[in-house]
Amino acid sequence: MLVQQILKSKGDTGVMTVAPGSLVQDAAKILAEKRIGTVVVSADGKAAVGILSERDIVRELAKRGASCMSDSVDNVMTANPVTCGLGDSADSVLERMTEGRFRHMPVCEDGEMVGLVTLGDVVKARLSEVSMEKDALEGMIMGH
Ligand code: AMP
User: Which domain holds residue 93?
Assistant: First the structure.
Protein backbone atom coordinates (compact mmCIF):
# COMPACT_ATOMS: atom_id res chain seq x y z
CA MET A 1 0.00 0.00 0.00
CA LEU A 2 1.43 3.35 -1.10
CA VAL A 3 0.85 6.87 0.24
CA GLN A 4 -0.76 7.74 -3.11
CA GLN A 5 -3.51 5.14 -2.47
CA ILE A 6 -4.02 6.33 1.11
CA LEU A 7 -4.55 9.92 -0.08
CA LYS A 8 -6.94 8.71 -2.79
CA SER A 9 -9.04 6.73 -0.31
CA LYS A 10 -9.22 9.80 1.98
CA GLY A 11 -10.59 11.95 -0.82
CA ASP A 12 -9.11 15.36 -1.51
CA THR A 13 -9.25 16.94 1.93
CA GLY A 14 -6.43 19.43 1.20
CA VAL A 15 -3.90 20.57 3.79
CA MET A 16 -4.70 23.27 6.34
CA THR A 17 -1.90 25.81 6.40
CA VAL A 18 -1.10 29.06 8.20
CA ALA A 19 1.48 31.59 7.05
CA PRO A 20 4.72 32.08 8.99
CA GLY A 21 4.18 34.87 11.53
CA SER A 22 0.56 33.89 12.20
CA LEU A 23 -0.48 33.91 15.85
CA VAL A 24 -0.77 30.69 17.83
CA GLN A 25 -4.33 31.67 18.78
CA ASP A 26 -5.34 31.81 15.11
CA ALA A 27 -3.81 28.39 14.48
CA ALA A 28 -5.59 27.01 17.59
CA LYS A 29 -8.88 28.35 16.25
CA ILE A 30 -8.35 26.46 12.98
CA LEU A 31 -7.48 23.24 14.87
CA ALA A 32 -10.69 23.55 16.92
CA GLU A 33 -12.98 24.56 14.05
CA LYS A 34 -11.69 21.91 11.64
CA ARG A 35 -11.32 19.26 14.36
CA ILE A 36 -7.76 18.47 13.29
CA GLY A 37 -4.52 17.93 15.20
CA THR A 38 -2.02 19.97 13.18
CA VAL A 39 -1.61 22.84 10.77
CA VAL A 40 1.30 23.10 8.40
CA VAL A 41 3.17 26.41 8.41
CA SER A 42 3.73 27.48 4.82
CA ALA A 43 4.07 30.82 3.04
CA ASP A 44 2.80 29.56 -0.32
CA GLY A 45 0.92 26.34 0.45
CA LYS A 46 3.68 24.42 -1.33
CA ALA A 47 6.75 24.38 0.92
CA ALA A 48 6.20 23.09 4.46
CA VAL A 49 8.48 25.24 6.63
CA GLY A 50 7.00 23.93 9.87
CA ILE A 51 4.22 21.97 11.52
CA LEU A 52 2.24 23.04 14.58
CA SER A 53 0.48 20.35 16.58
CA GLU A 54 -2.02 20.62 19.42
CA ARG A 55 0.75 19.04 21.51
CA ASP A 56 3.06 22.00 20.82
CA ILE A 57 0.36 24.39 22.04
CA VAL A 58 -0.36 22.36 25.19
CA ARG A 59 3.37 22.24 25.98
CA GLU A 60 3.74 26.02 25.64
CA LEU A 61 0.56 26.62 27.69
CA ALA A 62 2.03 24.50 30.50
CA LYS A 63 5.41 26.30 30.27
CA ARG A 64 4.38 29.93 29.94
CA GLY A 65 0.63 30.14 30.31
CA ALA A 66 -1.88 31.84 28.04
CA SER A 67 0.63 34.46 26.83
CA CYS A 68 1.92 31.89 24.30
CA MET A 69 -1.36 32.31 22.41
CA SER A 70 -0.25 35.78 21.26
CA ASP A 71 3.12 34.45 20.12
CA SER A 72 4.05 33.70 16.51
CA VAL A 73 3.63 30.09 15.33
CA ASP A 74 7.29 30.27 14.23
CA ASN A 75 8.38 30.09 17.90
CA VAL A 76 6.19 27.12 18.80
CA MET A 77 6.16 24.93 15.65
CA THR A 78 8.56 22.14 14.72
CA ALA A 79 10.64 23.47 11.81
CA ASN A 80 11.48 21.39 8.72
CA PRO A 81 8.99 18.57 9.32
CA VAL A 82 9.71 15.08 8.10
CA THR A 83 7.76 14.52 4.88
CA CYS A 84 6.96 11.52 2.70
CA GLY A 85 6.35 11.05 -1.03
CA LEU A 86 3.45 9.56 -2.99
CA GLY A 87 5.51 6.45 -3.78
CA ASP A 88 6.46 5.70 -0.15
CA SER A 89 4.95 2.61 1.44
CA ALA A 90 2.51 2.74 4.36
CA ASP A 91 4.95 0.64 6.39
CA SER A 92 7.83 3.08 5.88
CA VAL A 93 5.57 5.99 6.93
CA LEU A 94 4.45 4.07 10.04
CA GLU A 95 8.08 3.35 10.87
CA ARG A 96 9.09 7.02 10.59
CA MET A 97 6.08 8.19 12.61
CA THR A 98 6.84 5.65 15.35
CA GLU A 99 10.54 6.53 15.45
CA GLY A 100 9.89 10.29 15.42
CA ARG A 101 6.91 10.05 17.85
CA PHE A 102 4.59 12.13 15.70
CA ARG A 103 1.25 11.38 14.05
CA HIS A 104 1.24 13.65 11.01
CA MET A 105 3.28 13.79 7.83
CA PRO A 106 2.99 16.21 4.91
CA VAL A 107 3.18 14.47 1.53
CA CYS A 108 5.45 16.24 -0.98
CA GLU A 109 6.07 15.64 -4.66
CA ASP A 110 8.60 17.64 -6.71
CA GLY A 111 9.10 20.00 -3.76
CA GLU A 112 5.38 20.76 -3.45
CA MET A 113 3.02 19.69 -0.71
CA VAL A 114 0.23 17.57 -2.20
CA GLY A 115 -1.45 16.23 0.95
CA LEU A 116 -1.06 15.15 4.55
CA VAL A 117 -1.39 11.72 6.10
CA THR A 118 -2.12 10.99 9.74
CA LEU A 119 -1.25 7.92 11.80
CA GLY A 120 -4.99 7.13 11.76
CA ASP A 121 -5.13 7.24 7.93
CA VAL A 122 -2.18 4.88 7.61
CA VAL A 123 -3.41 2.42 10.25
CA LYS A 124 -6.89 2.36 8.69
CA ALA A 125 -5.44 1.67 5.23
CA ARG A 126 -3.17 -1.11 6.53
CA LEU A 127 -6.02 -2.75 8.46
CA SER A 128 -8.22 -2.88 5.37
CA GLU A 129 -5.31 -4.29 3.35
CA VAL A 130 -4.65 -6.99 5.98
CA SER A 131 -8.36 -7.85 6.03
CA MET A 132 -8.40 -8.23 2.21
CA GLU A 133 -5.27 -10.41 2.33
CA LYS A 134 -6.92 -12.59 4.97
CA ASP A 135 -10.06 -13.04 2.82
CA ALA A 136 -7.93 -13.89 -0.23
CA LEU A 137 -5.89 -16.46 1.72
CA GLU A 138 -9.04 -18.00 3.19
CA GLY A 139 -10.51 -18.23 -0.32
CA MET A 140 -7.38 -19.99 -1.58
CA ILE A 141 -7.33 -22.47 1.33
CA MET A 142 -11.04 -23.24 0.96
CA GLY A 143 -10.54 -23.58 -2.79
CA HIS A 144 -12.82 -20.81 -4.07
P1 AMP B 1 1.76 15.01 16.58
O2 AMP B 1 1.87 13.67 17.24
O3 AMP B 1 1.83 14.90 15.10
O4 AMP B 1 0.60 15.81 17.07
O5 AMP B 1 3.07 15.85 16.96
C6 AMP B 1 3.91 15.58 18.07
C7 AMP B 1 5.16 16.47 17.96
O8 AMP B 1 5.87 16.17 16.75
C9 AMP B 1 4.88 17.98 17.90
O10 AMP B 1 5.96 18.64 18.53
C11 AMP B 1 4.90 18.29 16.40
O12 AMP B 1 5.29 19.62 16.10
C13 AMP B 1 5.94 17.31 15.90
N14 AMP B 1 5.64 16.83 14.53
C15 AMP B 1 4.43 16.52 14.00
N16 AMP B 1 4.54 16.09 12.75
C17 AMP B 1 5.86 16.10 12.45
C18 AMP B 1 6.63 15.77 11.29
N19 AMP B 1 6.07 15.31 10.18
N20 AMP B 1 7.99 15.94 11.35
C21 AMP B 1 8.57 16.40 12.48
N22 AMP B 1 7.91 16.71 13.60
C23 AMP B 1 6.56 16.57 13.60
Answer: 3-142
